[in-house]
Amino acid sequence: MATDNPATHDPATDAQLAAIDAWWRAANYLSVGQLYLRQNALLRRPLQNQDIKRRLLGHWGTTPGLTFVYAHLNRVITDRDQDVLLVAGPGHGGPALVASTWLEGSYSEIYGAVSRDEAGMELLVRQFSYPGGIPSHAAPETPGSINEGGELGYSLAHGFGAVLDNPGLVAAVVIGDGEAETGALSASWDAHVFVDPHRDGAVLPILHLNGWKIANPTVLARMPQDQLERRMRGHGYEPFFVTVDDPDAVDVAHRDFAATLDACLDRIAGIQAHARGGTSASADTAEDEARREPWPMIVLRSPKGWTGPTEVDGKPVEGTWRAHQIPLPVSPDDDAAREALTAWMRSYRPEDLFDDDGRPRPQLTALSPVGDRRLGATPFANGGRLLAPLRLPPVTPVAADVPEPGRQRNSPMLTLGSWLAEVIRANPETFRLFGPDETASNRLQHVYEATDKAWNARLLPVDENLAPDGRVIEVLSEHLCQGLLEGYLLTGRHGVFDCYEAFVHIVDSMFNQHAKWLKVHQRLPWRQPIASFTYLLSSHVWQQDHNGFSHQDPGFIDHAVNKSADVVRVYLPPDTNTLLSTMDHCLRSTDRINIVVSGKQPSLTWLGPEDAAHHCARGLGVWEFAGTERAGEKPDVVLACAGDVPTTETVAAAQLLAHHVPDLSVRVVNVVDLMRLIDDRSHPHGLSAADFDGIFTEDRPVIFAYHGYASLIHRLTYKRTNHAGMHVRGYHEEGTTTTPFDMALLNGIDRYQLAIDAIDRVPALHGTQTVLRQRLQDAQLAARAYTREVGEDPDHITDWSLAADPVL
Amino acid sequence: MATDNPATHDPATDAQLAAIDAWWRAANYLSVGQLYLRQNALLRRPLQNQDIKRRLLGHWGTTPGLTFVYAHLNRVITDRDQDVLLVAGPGHGGPALVASTWLEGSYSEIYGAVSRDEAGMELLVRQFSYPGGIPSHAAPETPGSINEGGELGYSLAHGFGAVLDNPGLVAAVVIGDGEAETGALSASWDAHVFVDPHRDGAVLPILHLNGWKIANPTVLARMPQDQLERRMRGHGYEPFFVTVDDPDAVDVAHRDFAATLDACLDRIAGIQAHARGGTSASADTAEDEARREPWPMIVLRSPKGWTGPTEVDGKPVEGTWRAHQIPLPVSPDDDAAREALTAWMRSYRPEDLFDDDGRPRPQLTALSPVGDRRLGATPFANGGRLLAPLRLPPVTPVAADVPEPGRQRNSPMLTLGSWLAEVIRANPETFRLFGPDETASNRLQHVYEATDKAWNARLLPVDENLAPDGRVIEVLSEHLCQGLLEGYLLTGRHGVFDCYEAFVHIVDSMFNQHAKWLKVHQRLPWRQPIASFTYLLSSHVWQQDHNGFSHQDPGFIDHAVNKSADVVRVYLPPDTNTLLSTMDHCLRSTDRINIVVSGKQPSLTWLGPEDAAHHCARGLGVWEFAGTERAGEKPDVVLACAGDVPTTETVAAAQLLAHHVPDLSVRVVNVVDLMRLIDDRSHPHGLSAADFDGIFTEDRPVIFAYHGYASLIHRLTYKRTNHAGMHVRGYHEEGTTTTPFDMALLNGIDRYQLAIDAIDRVPALHGTQTVLRQRLQDAQLAARAYTREVGEDPDHITDWSLAADPVL
Questions:
Q1: Closest CA to A535 of A585, A483, A593, A464
Q2: Are A712 and B715 in contact (CB under 8 A)?
Q3: What are the two backbone dihedrals, phi and then psi, of residue B636, each rounded to the nearest 5 degrees?
Q4: Could you give the CA distance from residue B203 to residue B223 in angstroms, rounded to a whole number?
Q5: Cβ–Cβ of A183/B181 closer than 8 Å?
Q6: In this prediction, what percent of chain A has a pLDDT beyond 90?
Q7: Domain boundaries in chain B?
Q8: What is the pLDDT of residues A540-574, one digit of tens each?
Q9: A613-658 pLDDT, tens per residue?
Q10: Is the N end or the C end of chain A the one with fewer CB atoms within 10 Å?
């Protein structure tokens, strides 16, 4: 189909192409220097033993491809006055990006010591992959990066997340052909279905086929060209091929790539102009269908280690896997190897590229864009510079009214959905919700009163809540949800990822990488705080009666707490109003990863909005309404809980005890912020020893009912005075398809068991409660038998509330 | 290209199609019964309140598609005398598979009470998604399943794993269009690149486009047909489309699908005949290229919830997302709803399908294959029936010779590679190695002396170790590696997945599902033991000098130990010979998940082959050669270690103490089998309290240097007498690109720190060692400063061995 093209540009001139080539050579020269040299970066004198790094730790293979793309992007950014974000997906592209940002000046503006002159160049080469220096892949330390290239597979999702709600931005995403084999990357091609050309920017994927991974050919590079073209068209793109058959025909390659880049950007501009000229969110028509033209993408086929050694020891290197890491082994004492390295570096003609002071010559600096348009300086890669706090509506209008604790039921997630609808309304361009087809299943469907689900594909009359400009993105790939939200946050916006609790493990490794990124990012003064990543986990382990054992796993919390205390927060709000307060807090926070776990089924509401806010602010507290403490006396036993189902069972257990052992002094403690359990010397949210002992006592038995695996509570309270008194109940991998209360029974976290635990552990009761103990056990058996026969929980369990008489 | 076709078959007869339709109606009838009924499965009397389940927990949407495919496969299995494994990828296909296996008789043979008559049918419908019953998706309890459909995305990888080395097997893999959006599934299409038509069987993917996920349209269903065709061709398949436009035109659908199935199986037979007629593992030629014909696949487009209610409450249901779960709400007291349900069930004409005793009529039973050819009875779905133990060569020929402990260096992984080469030679059809492009990077390259890497795509002259029949599969997708090995093991073979330690988190969730599967599988007497899944993790946290912080994460062990003690084993062999012994043990084990962590760099070898075997058999032990204990006396301090780098640092610390504090009695304990730390009442590998106290003492300080996060050691020893004496050092998320010893320093696990810890914790030394303490701290600072200046670790660290004098 034809595209209106309002923005064709003049082709690159010979002078521009010459500048691009010079720029590329300079970046390659500096990259080789980083791999090999401790000093003598300008080769002022013949390379000596002490000039060579003792350990050669870097990757050459992908470097010349990345510098090639970087050099060419410089031209089009300036020519078109275009914001571009470069996402460098291939592994270990560090030297390319560091060299390039140094050339354009953005590196030295951030790291003053690494100045854009010979002294800075000496530091530049030495610091790379050197103890106390910088990593070999793009990292938080790398200007212009939004988390790419360490663990592989997330570049395309990050690029798509970046362009959402940034209509003027083009994300040029270089995708390595190794990376392209990963699951996350494979699932990301479809993300354009959620991009609205009217309101969002565009991603330009640049699939870089250099043919090899560490030691193997890549699948995409070895498939016939016509198959690859079908594949890309099948993903919804129009592929433009640039193939470098002859490594020496550099001029041809530059001209080809420049023309292709122009053609692609023209095509993008055309699609956007077309979409922006019309209406975007209309119902589906044949015209709308026609408007969904394929986005352009580039397939750049170039030799791995291009411009590096052709052969070493008689074996081909350039264009093979042998160029992946250090293509030319250079031990410091090997004269011949040092000479070969010198010849390689001199092949870039450094004297033409740098002046006597080591500064890039004007031909190079003239090519670079200026100011924030530089790829290393763009605020889109330092999203905190663009971050504006959310406009957060009050939670009180949607909060549950609680005249008395534990009398009425509300669905926490359903209520939260009403508030999130208001958040979406108040922040129509800076907040989004992401979920793997589970937003309604997680009971957040009220958000669809304020917005739709983004969908820029065919619509049918039967469809509901789908529109190109929807604020909710639903795709059955947790990887893509996570990657899109990361890209969205890293470019200065806000959002939430809602997910089934068990299946968030699918992104464990992406969580790791984001947590590690945030930890380093926090320590860099030039990186501005970004909005926190908030996981909203529902359909949790205790509410999987539809799904059973495969859907029961509360271990994401355990996984998360291994990461830095400066980053990770875990919240287990026990009811509707505490969930609202928790989410309000999370959406105000920056530079954190918040994990919020909440049930979706109607459950008892314990605290009114004000009490809930107060409770959440403290993170944990004694619930006097639920206990039987006498003022001024230490309780006989503490019943503690974290998580909604454990809270209900704990309060019920306390009521059983109050009824049957009225003299027993029981304290009930509820924990919302799990990090409060840690000592304040180990975690910023930690409780002091005195405060902890004041709440949990120094010596009374604590029966702790916990949402997840019990060991985590032991871990967090390991250094507490009363840790020996902690008796923790949690999920211990006993699950099947059954009712919620049967799940509690199976895992020994039910009210009867908690009461038995208390009786067993209070010394004064030893041996005195055999009748009650037996009755509690009988009640367990009876509940189980009823459930198995009738197929649902007994009424006295499901109808129970704090107002009801305790029933055995 | 033309395909020789040795195996065209007669098209389905009208009688066959009628039988297929009857079979399909019966399976659908029984599926609806499972969703709704507690009893009265044959509708003997009008449905009453008590006949309806109190909680309707199941999924109708995908069911009729699965039963449709199942019915049709029955015919071709018999007609062609063909082994077929059905992998049912879509979520919640449980009712379809249970109904189908009951119809063919395989269900009742396993679960005798659920007999193939009315009494059995009553149990059949009631047990589904019922407390104490069976799950709503395919599960270990489901005959014919190899782990599919709980968490989504693994069906295609499982199917490919199943057909490797099974030349006579066709795996028909039904892929849900929701599932198809996941990362793992997206990455799995390419797996045919590793299939050798000469030696392996074939996968027939059946992409089932029913159009909807839980609440959203699917991406693949909404893309134009020509784009979808390009996509499948781009993945290397020839798609055959069967489209059900009119839900009522059932006859057309049956005829179409039967003909398409025949065409696909003919095509598969042709490809295989072609490949098997020629040579398979030859070098690449134009002819070879021509031989790589695309494999056939089917795109079945049919309405979600086909044959279910068309409309409910005026809203379309069949063919929409509303059919996903329970399409027709039926509360027990609602007469009209019960009537609607009755009408729906009667629409399948049960009287034509079941005789008066509730048995399937002969028309149905005649369609089913017999014996092990039935999809629910095939041994390929109960792999233990096919399992033969590996022929394991002795490890001694490759083991390191150790005249004295800690004198010489070996690379554990390099040595292991030599042994694995022998394992491959001895088991040329039942053992495979899988890795994400890291087998050589993990130093297992000696395996290529025995085999190649599987590669059935274009070959270039520069290629090494690639061949269609290679026993190593390398693809840069941890998901695909894991999924292929799962499929290979579940069908009765053996293998190992080698992976960078940090990035194995990518498959955390797949690990969960496999661990859960094994736990349930172990409890089912009819499921025979299968070979264990062995993770071989290298390039670990302490050896990431190339890669830095993003590649440092030892948390997979923490993740794993949350799963059942009956399944999970963790081994941290400290050197080459213990690694060999550990792997020998793991490859003999069944029904476990073994996690083995080992370094790849040359490191000190401590134990000769016999001592290593003895040490590994005990799982942990006192290393007398490393300590300074006096016979008959309790030591002053215990230095314990687990992991290769911590072991070296611990032995070095002991030597420092022996030199500088010669009177101190130091015991050194090395732990290989981490589960030994647990109490024997909690884990089958656990140590008794007496044995544990004998080794770790009841009251002496224990300085424990651990490979991963320290909290795990506290967790495992939580109930031990001396747990308060445990002082654990491990990785605490301090990492960057630096030398190995600098990493130890950063995380406080270096020899100097361990010696300081010991001095600080032995009461008798309090205040007496200030000079030594200061010297140890100075040594830390000096090592760090040297590393930062010179770029490598000091010689006295890298050259140190047990024979060397300790140097500060």
A1: A593
A2: no
A3: -75, -30
A4: 24
A5: no
A6: 91
A7: 14-278+297-381, 409-603, 620-798
A8: 999 887 788 899 999 999 999 999 889 999 999 99
A9: 999 999 999 999 999 999 889 999 999 999 999 999 999 999 999 9
A10: N
Whether A523 contacts chain B with CB within 8 A:
no
Q: Which of B316, B440, B788 sits opposite A131 (nearest CB)?
A: B788
Which residue do the tokens 């939260």 mark? A416
On the question of a common fold for B409-603 and B620-798, the answer reads yes
Structure tokens at B309: 């209610």
| Main-chain phi, psi angles of B449, to 5 degrees | -75, -20
Three-state DSSP at B802 gives coil
In contact, B74 and B12? CB cutoff 8 Å:
no
Which tokens sit at A421?
A: 């609808």
User: Which CATH number describes the domain made up of A14-378?
Assistant: 3.40.50.970
Q: Beta-carbon neighbour count of residue B281 at 10 Å?
A: 12
Mean pLDDT of A88-113: 95
- Whether B485 and chain A come into contact, CB under 8 Å, resolves to no
CB contacts of A130 in chain B (<8 Å) are 737, 791
Task: Give the 3-state secondary structure of A32-43.
Answer: HHHHHECCCCCC
The structure tokens listed for B374 are: 């039935």
Q: Is the Cα torsion angle B198, B200, B203, B204 positive or negative in sign?
A: positive
Torsion angle of C-alpha atoms B435, B438, B440, B445, degrees rounded to 10: -10
pLDDT at B466: 97
Minimal CA–CA distance to B606: which of B670, B520, B515? B670
Consecutive 10-residue averages of pLDDT for chain B (808 residues): 53 97 98 97 97 94 98 98 96 93 98 98 96 91 91 97 98 97 98 97 98 95 96 98 96 98 97 80 48 90 97 96 95 94 98 97 96 98 98 97 95 98 98 95 96 96 96 98 98 98 98 96 97 97 86 96 93 98 98 98 96 98 96 94 98 96 97 96 93 97 98 94 95 88 96 97 90 96 94 92 84
* 3-class state of residue B298 by DSSP: strand
Q: What homologous superfamily is domain B409-603 in, according to CATH? A: Thiamin diphosphate (ThDP)-binding fold, Pyr/PP domains (3.40.50.970)
Best probe of the A interface among B55, B732, B737, B747, by most A CBs < 10 A, is B737
CA distances from A267 to A9, A16, A157, A189 (A): 11, 22, 21, 18
Given a contact cutoff of 8 angstroms between Cβ atoms, the answer to whether B97 and B85 are in contact is no
Length of chain A: 808
Q: How many other CB atoms are found less than 10 A from the CB of residue A307?
A: 25
Secondary structure element (H or E) that encloses residue A594, with its range: strand A593-597
B54 interfacial to chain A (CB closer than 8 Å): yes
B150, B562, B739 member nearest A709 (Cβ): B562
Shortest distance, CA B509 to any CA of chain A (angstroms):
5
- Please state, in angstroms and rounded to a whole number, the distance separating the CA atoms of residues B165 and B495: 13
- Looking at the partner chain, which of A134, A325, A438 has a beta carbon nearest the beta carbon of B737? A134
As a whole number of angstroms, the distance between CA B543 and CA A720 comes to: 34
CATH number of B620-798: 3.40.50.920
Contact call for residues B794 and B787 (beta carbons, < 8 A):
yes
pLDDT at B91: 78
Other C-beta atoms closer than 10 Å to the C-beta of B700 total 18
* CATH topology (fold) of B14-278+297-381: Rossmann fold (3.40.50)
Other residues' Cβ atoms within 10 Å of the Cβ of residue B3: 14
Q: Name the residue type at position B649.
A: E
Backbone angles phi, psi at A793, to 5 degrees: -70, 150
Is B214's CB within 8 Å of A437's CB? yes
CA A83, A85, A87 angle in degrees (round to 5)? Answer: 165
CA distances A246 to A217, A253, B733, Å, are 19, 9, 45
Distance CA B541, CA B503 (A): 11
